[in-house]
Fold this sequence. Notes:
Blueprint: H1 3-13, E1 16-18, E2 28-32, H2 40-44, H3 48-52, E3 60-63, E4 69-74, E5 78-82, H4 93-97, H5 115-127, H6 138-147
Helix pairs in contact: 5-6
Amino acid sequence: LSKKQLAEIFINSGCLIPVKQPSISNRIIIILENLEKASLSELLGEFLQPLENRGLDNLYTVKKANGVSHAYYFHENCFLMGTIAKSRLQGSDLMVQQHFLWVQLRWDGEPIHGLLRKFLRRKVLSKFRGQMPPPCDPVCKMVEWILT
């Protein structure tokens, strides 16, 4: 996956919205798998600032093949999740690591029963100001998918 392809995924999914368009209320979840195969700093580096500080004050500019540039912003209801099979990051990837919350799960060890469920529930409650969204909500569906 290249940075250009990731930008296209963000645009096509509605996570990156053109500056002249109003924000949408849909919740969008992007799941990036096998991030150990990419350089996190090269792939995500330019997205970190606009992802952390969403809105029109932190734009991301995409330059198309024809040379025309378009400005976009990330909206609040876009969630980015990823999987990585490395136990340690090195070099420039360490700079990227601090921008994300990491949950370590081991395939060869028994996880603490219910820990991930409790953790994700707290994060969802925090994001939605103390209220759980309905079970049909994409965020709830994503959490259930992760836990199965």
